Amino acid sequence: MNRQGSSVQASGIHADAPKTAIEGTTGPQPHRSRGRRFPAPLVTGTALIASACLVALISLWWTPFDLTGVDTAGSLLPPLSDGHLLGTDRLGRDVTSQIMAGARNSLIVGGAATGIAIVVGVVVGLITAASGRVAREVITRVIDIGVAIPALLVALVLATVLGPGRATVIAAIVISFVPWAARVSVGPARQILAREYVEAAFAYGRSRWYVMMRHVLPNIGSLIAVQAAIMFATAVLAEAALSFLGVGEPPPAQSWGRLLSESQSVAHQAPTLVIFPGLAITAVVLGFMLLGNGVHALLDPHQRRREMEARE
Amino acid sequence: MLEIRDLSVRIGRHQVVAIDELTLASGDRMGLVGESGSGKTMTAMSIAGLQPRTATVSGSIRLNGRELLGLDPAAMAEVRGTDLGVIFQDPLRALNPTMRVGKQVGEAIRLHQRVSRRTAREQTVELLTRVGLDDAGRLVGRYPHQLSGGQRQRVLIATAIACEPILLIADEPTTALDVTVQQGILDLLVELSTEQGMGLLFVSHDLGVVRTVTSSISVMYGGHIAETGPVESVIQQPRHRYTEALIAASPGRGERAGPAQHGRRFRVIEGTVPPLGSFPSGCPFRGRCGHEVPDCAMAPPKTGPGPHVFRCWNPTAPAGDEVDARTH
Amino acid sequence: MRGLIEVEGLEFSHGRERGSDARGGGSWSLRVPELTIEDGSTVGIVGESGSGKSTLIRILCGLLPVAAGSATFRGKEIADWLRIGGREFRRQNQLVFQNPSGSFDPRMTMGRSVAEPVKAIERRAPTGAEIAGWLSEVGLRGEILRRYPHELSGGQLQRVAIARALSLRPSVLYADEPTSALDVSVQAQVLNLLMDLRENLGLTLVMVSHDIVVVAELCEYLVVMKDGGIVETGRTDDVMRRPRASYTEELIAAAERVSLR
Questions:
Q1: Using a CB-CB distance cutoff of 8 angstroms, which residues of chain A are in contact with residue C62?
Q2: Beta carbons of A311 and B36 less than 8 Å apart
């Protein structure tokens, strides 16, 4: 892995979200069997994330070796030697322990960034959807500009202003996620606002606020959940990339991205040093992607309509 | 020309269509009328091989002697490109939004004739003119969303008749159109059918619309054909209790209201069309009918002389005073 | 006598709203020089797509703003009603829509949906007996209260929609193509229900439809609209027997051709 490669990953922060819309399904889908079976992606994704969370939790109290213990004599040990399951790095630190502690970092950063971005972004999106035409056009343009700002640039500028650290990483990711979250919620929210039940609610005197909270938000909730899962995956990837570039929390804190960058120079001697953190990142990212797909399949808003249509 | 025998369409455990016999002679126009859940659309789509993937179709559908059931998708597509044309309720959905109208019609022509692009273009203009689009030369360069609903439906008809099919299936072709536009489309279908000797299977929920287009009519309810016959015979002298009730309940269409009788009540059919798979056994109209006899629990036999047949244990009185009194 | 609803020189125009142009769209406007709806009358507004009939009733029930001109309800401008006394205006003006399955939040039970208007306007939760009463008025039983919209048929949903609108005991009920999404055999039930309720509750009923024959049989007065303007108004019998506008003739002729008579 080289610098260029990682910058490509970082630019994935503002990768466009997959098209999600309330209308228009693609092709017929297999009928679900009578028992309520959960889709395979959901199960796999949940399992991957659950194990990551478990590992992160355990690392709070226990890791196979001391996290900060430097042992230059035992550096670059191959896997399965001297009780080091995944070997040791350049400084002789246990890779298993480092990866376990890194999981904590990834999940904290991913969770915080996604959570803040979704709340702020969806609020912006709902306000946009509910505004008049002129205001909506203006906010939409602002959001478009926000989406177009390169996230990596924001992160590097923030790092020079705030200094590297976890907060910087979270802030950088939040800044690039908010326009994304806003943009994906405007369309579906406007579709709900065009429904007759919303018109009926206005006709019996419900306020805009009430309609947004009680009718619109619950009905776009499943779409937002799917987006959140994809964002979480992207955030984990972004965190790794930013740590790789040195924007992340400085040592002694552990991070998968930094593990990679530290092992870069010795990658040809000990390839497992980049493989294992890489696998960890892949597993968590994949986990959230699968979870997103699974939730989408489970909460498919077309499900009910298909049942209705089956009457004809 | 079209011969259907023992057609059964199932979705999961539910039988949605059960038709023992339905025939359409060459050049004839038949209306397939029913409400939601009647199976009319499923029947039409099964003939065209466009039924949903979850549906199981069995029996026999012959078009000019050729068995259509069991054909592989490619062969079925070939049939749709040659002997069979289909038009749908919503022309905007049936047309490609990113392709100019002329090109879409041209493709339909080139699909079945080996002609150059230029010839296809000339034929396209000709074809669009024939379906009543006066300004065909200009319209070919437009995209579907730039046309009115009526124009779109005419374009769709043009693509469907490009291959000079022997049977055109029209599924609620005017339901999405304004009443003043609807008539032009209906007239066009009749005209094309007469000129080309093309059979027409016209699917609709509206008896009145069907009456202006077809020569015969089949009324469906709960997946079965309740009544079949010449269109005037069925509408003037319905024998099946469902047909009778449907005509009487058609708002503004059934029994005439005297002047200044606003706010009068319409005759109603009790209850609601049952959901899929919940139609009663025996006669599917059982429970909403109001003229039930004990036999209704059994499947009613095909009754009636000549072309006008029905399946009802307790039919209305054949022809006579009652009908005359109502129509004059 | 003053009308319950009076419109004078009303204008409204939609900008080029993207996404809301499902019916052929573009920018269009509505101009109504004069229209009076009297208390307790039945008025049918007839027109084709793009005629502005749906927009007109949405302005009259305060869902869309008046751009220019005047629209009054009980002698007071609707805009003034909405500024002061908005709740009373809402209570008196209720609406039923064309598409019954879109008229209910898919995540709310029918019971919650039906209770909403009273909660919103009267700031109290209706009692179970009240709700049961509203439902029985439209010929439904209480067992549907726990159901979700997708579990009911179109006809049932439209009945619940009517019950919900009438729970506030409005003085005007606007019905926007209330039966065109329903099966033929169910349409008559809903139309009869509307007529019965109108009589029993002394409602003013304003019904929008594309079908001149249907509204002609139900309503005392007809308003024929085309391209955002009113083509003809009058007592139904006069309009149907001696239409003054050629467009009205065209509508009647088109309807007669597909008549079953």
A1: 203
A2: yes
Strand, helix or coil at B299?
A: coil
Domains of chain B, residue spans? 2-98+143-310
Q: Sorting pLDDT into bands at 50, 70 and 90, what band is B17?
A: very high
On whether the CB atoms of residues C224 and C251 are closer than 8 A, the answer is: yes
B32-80, pLDDT tens digit by residue?
Answer: 999 888 889 999 999 999 888 888 999 999 999 899 998 888 899 888 8
Q: Whole-prediction pTM value?
A: 0.82
Whether CATH 3.40.50.300 fits B2-98+143-310: yes
Beta-carbon separation of A28 and B37 below 8 A = no
- Contact list in A for residue B279 (CB cut-off 8 A) is none
pLDDT digits (tens, 9 = 90+) for A23-48: 333 333 334 444 456 778 888 888 99
Q: Does A312 contact B275 at a Cβ distance shorter than 8 Å?
A: no
Residues of chain B positioned with their CB less than 8 A from the CB of A307? none
> How far is the C-alpha of A245 from the C-alpha of C40, rounded, in Å?
76
d(CA C70, CA C59): 11
In chain A the domains, ranked by start, together with CATH numbers, are 49-62+88-311 (1.10.3720.10)
* Residue of chain C nearest A303, judged by CA positions: C150
B278 interface with C at CB cutoff 8 Å = no
CA distances from B279 to B77, B223, B276 (A): 33, 9, 7
For residue B110, the model assigns a pLDDT of: 84
**Strand-strand pairing, B167-171 and B309-310:** unpaired
Q: Is B45 exposed, middle or buried (0-12, 13-18, 19+ CB in 10 A)?
A: buried
Q: Do B276 and A31 touch (CB under 8 A)?
A: no
Maximum pairwise Cα distance, chain A: 77
Size of interface A-C (CB pairs under 8 A): 66
C39 close to B (CB below 8 A): no
CB contact at 8 A, B163 and B112: yes
Bridge partners (DSSP) listed for residue B9? B17, B57
Q: What is the pLDDT of residues C71-103, one digit of tens each?
A: 999 999 999 999 988 899 999 999 999 999 899
Q: Which of A28, A31, A312 sits opposite B36 (nearest CB)?
A: A312
Cβ <8 Å between B235 and C260: yes
Of C236, C251, C259, the CB nearest to B208: C259
